[in-house]
Specification:
103 residues, 5 helices, single chain, 64% helix, mainly alpha
């Protein structure tokens, strides 16, 4: 099992890289009439999420993808887990998401 500190560092690094890629894409779009998309890191994200899921004995990588992409690394509020596990979980950052995954 990966340590919480290492999980948080990895997820925070991925979030930072994602934000930098988006910013780079926005800047390049200004010079290319809005026709620029950054897709340099997609394979890396998939592999890191798969490795983390395996390390944490999760059934699949969908939960990591959901948290990162649908919830913008925890910045989008969601109440879905209250319905699934009959308890509300705060997954607003990588550390809290780790605690949720370990619960």
């Amino acid at each position: 099992m990966i340590k919480k500190e290492n999980f948080v560092k990895i997820m925070d690094s991925l979030r930072t890289q994602y934000e930098q890629s988006l910013e780079f894409g926005r800047d390049m779009s200004k010079y290319l009439d809005g026709h620029f998309t950054v897709a340099l890191n997609e394979g890396i994200y998939d592999q890191v999420f798969k490795a983390l899921s395996d390390e944490m004995n999760l059934d699949d990588v969908d939960l990591m993808n959901w948290w990162a992409w649908e919830l913008d690394f925890g910045r989008v509020e969601v109440d879905a887990w209250a319905m699934i596990r009959e308890k509300r979980f705060d997954i607003s950052d990588a550390g809290k998401f780790y605690d949720f995954l370990c619960s």
